[in-house]
Amino acid sequence: MKKEAETTPSETKRQRKARIFRINFFFFIVFLLFAALVVRLGIVQIVQGEEYAKEVSRTEVNVAQYPAPRGKMFDRNGRIVVDNKNVPAVTYTVEKTTKTKDKLETAKKLAQLIDLDTSFLRERDLRDYWIAKNPKKAENLLTEKEKKLEPKETYPLQVERVPEEEIKKIEKDPKELELAALYTKFSSGYAYEPQIVATNLSQEEVSRVAEQLENLPGVDVITDWERVYPYDDVFKTILGKISSPKEGIPEDNKSFFVARGYARNERVGKSYLEQQYEDYLNPRKAKVQYISDKDGNTISQKEIDDGRRGFDLKLSIDIELQKRIEKIVDQQIKAARGRGNYLVDRAFVVMMDPYKGDVLAMVGRMYDSGEMLNFDYGAFGTQYEMGSTVKGATVLAGYQFGLRHGTVFYDAPIRLKGTPEKSSYQNMGAVSDLTALQRSSNVYMFHIAMKIAGIQYYPGRSFPAKDEDFQKMRNYYAQFGLGVPTGIDLPQESAGQQSDPGIDKGKLLDLAIGQFDTYTPLQMAQYVSTIANGGYRVKPRLVTEILEPTDDGLGPIAQEMPVKVLNRINNTEEDIQRVQQGFYLVTNTRRGTAYAQLHGLNVAGKTGTAETTYYGTKRQYWGTDVYNLTFIGYYPAKDPQVAFSVVVPWTKRTGSEDVNKRIARDIVKAYIDLQKEYAGNSNAKSNDDEQ
User: Fold this and answer.
1) I need a surface site. Which of 144, 174, 367, 442 has the fewest CB within 10 A?
2) Over 70: is that where the pLDDT of 9 sits?
3) Which of 188, 292, 388, 441 is catalytic?
4) CB within 8 A of 443, min separation 6: which ones?
């Protein structure tokens, strides 16, 4: 056996060098790794240190907004007509870390402390509640394949598949219904958006909740508000409504309100003045700042704005006059029905300052099932044939076209080919423009219409009027506000209705006496104001001033709503004075159509009777021949303080032919008496001040 070869010195030296190289290379690699680590630590600490420090200590600021009262409304004399009442309320605020089980647990505790209305619950709310309470059972409603879908796809399937017997169990259990109601309200807002859970609580309920707030995360007791109306239902319709916390901002206008900082559950005006002046009445809400850590846990909160109520509105309405006129209209409707007018179920009065457009009273009343109901919005939202009250506009249109003062026409029946005979209520013989207004001649107005249309009347011949002639007449009427919006500061105003004559061009004559197109009671008041003030059509207004909110009475004026003249009619001062004289004859001379009821009151005006058919709430009487009785006027006849319209649709002529005049008489007396009372109170106050 051979001996192994011995390692030579040169080989040993090479091996030692190789080991030393490997060791050095290893240490070099280790050095590079440590150097890279040192560089990285330097970058983290020096370059990015501040950023990471912020991340470690990161907090988030959220602001919750709490309700503040809306602005109040005052009448023209400073009486409060819309106020706010403080009411205790329980709120719930969801935080970012709030889980479904947290809501359910808090709801269970809160339900033991207060009684809750559950009438608002829908079946969908009950299904959502069942799914929240029974997550495992809800998951079993899905197939294995469906469980792999996104939650936005699986949840609708679960909602649809909640067993009906489970819903019925909840419906039969009052306690479960309360829990469902609380869970629904807890879940109706975004994070840090307080939801009003309950209002109108008893003092005992408020105390119980306040004592347990530490055990009710997210729950708070606040002072909320609700609208109150010191004059009950007087003018309440026009004052408007607001949404409830449950309704919140309207869905169809959601983006508009959200862009202006409204919360989803915020109460907003949803009709008439509350809606029209939402931008002013809306309050500046109280704000609480929540600071949370990076995990969403709230670490502090503080109030940063105690809020204030919205701006107040000063209205043009005299609420006491409104109340008295409502009573007058109620009495006269009942009296007319007592005389056999079973279809008379409504009447309207609009009284306004003819120079400023201030609406002093706007009354609409409706009889229904033995009760008189508020129908004020009908004064600008419903329209009727107004009859002879439009004759002042017809005469002034004639003057614009060239009719001379004192022109006489012979009042006898008009007979046209293919058109029923047209006449006044009696043959009057020769009548002038003044007599035509005084005695209400239809035939005189027919001749004006034919003159404007360029038609020469011959008995028995056809009537070659054109569509352009109707438009020409309507353009004249529009100068007075007839057939066009008045511009009042309210939504949903009707402009009236312009009928289509079709082939019966003889309807042009009906247009001239107010028995074709329809107008609103408010349009009639604007029209007579235009005559009363010397020819200026003034925009009606219900709000005269926007006021800074104060704790005591009327605040400083923040904005004044200007008087706005829409146009001046194309008549001379002499033309207008001529019609004013005719209106005076109507009420102050024995042959005037309103003399019996209105003489001695220094009123000027015009009566109207329109033949029409009934189309009211009693369908079985549709098509019945009836009359619309109207009156327009102003007081006093010279330098008038007020102008007004009275509209009583659907009367029988016998026994009620003067209901319009009776209302006109009584409302003027009410206005005069009220001004005397105001003057007496003012004098008494002045005497007290002097003493």
Assistant:
1) 144
2) no
3) 388
4) 409, 410, 411, 412, 413, 414, 422, 423, 424, 428, 431
> What span, in angstroms and rounded, lies between the C-alpha atoms of 638 and 353?
14
Q: Are 246 and 120 in contact (CB under 8 A)?
A: yes
Q: With contact defined as beta carbons under 8 Å apart, do 78 and 360 qualify?
A: no
Rounded CA separation 90/556 (Å): 34
User: In angstroms, rounded to a whole number, what is the distance separating the alpha carbons of residues 622 and 378?
Assistant: 20
pLDDT digits (tens, 9 = 90+) for 646-668: 999 999 876 557 999 999 999 99
Q: What angle do CA 57, 62, 68 make, to 5 degrees?
A: 155
Tokens of 561: 């709503």
> Does residue 388 have an active-site annotation?
yes
Q: Which amino acid is at 159?
A: V
CA distance 541 to 352: 9
Of 6-10, 19-23, 61-65, 457-461, the range with the highest mean pLDDT is 457-461
Q: Measuring CA to CA, which residue among 682, 666, 678, 679 is closest to residue 324?
A: 666
Decide the pairing of beta strands 346-352 and 286-293. Answer: unpaired
What token pair was written down for 599?
Answer: 């003489």
Q: Environment class of residue 304 by beta-carbon count within 10 Å: exposed (0-12), middle (13-18) or buried (19+)?
A: exposed
SS3 570: coil
| Calpha distance 594→439 (Å, rounded) | 9
**Encoded tokens for 129:** 């509640």
Contact 429, 410 (CB under 8 A): yes
Token pair, residue 213, equals: 């707030």
Whole-angstrom CA distances from 602 to 543, 588, 589, 605, 638 are 29, 8, 11, 10, 9
pLDDT given at position 688: 59
Rounded alpha-carbon distances, angstroms, from residue 246 to 175, 177, 179, 264 = 21, 17, 17, 9
- The span from the CA of 237 to the CA of 634, in Å, is 26
CA–CA distances in Å: residue 576 to residues 348, 434, 579, 580? 26, 12, 5, 6
Q: Reduce the DSSP state of residue 273 to 3 states and report it.
A: helix
Q: By three-state DSSP, how is residue 482 classified?
A: coil
Q: What local confidence, expressed as pLDDT, does residue 133 receive? A: 94
Report the SS3 class of residue 371. strand
Please state, as a whole number, how many other Cβ atoms lie within 10 Å of the Cβ of residue 628: 23
Amino acid at position 208, single letter: R
- In tens, the pLDDT along 244-254 reads 877 888 888 88
CA distance 113 to 295: 31
User: Would you tell me how many other CB atoms lie within 10 Å of the CB of residue 191?
Assistant: 15
Rounded-to-integer distance, Cα 249 and Cα 89, Å = 20
- 256-271 burial by CB neighbour count: b if 16+ within 10 A, else e? ebeeeebbbbbbbbbb
Burial class (CB in 10 A: 0-12, 13-18, 19+), 33: exposed
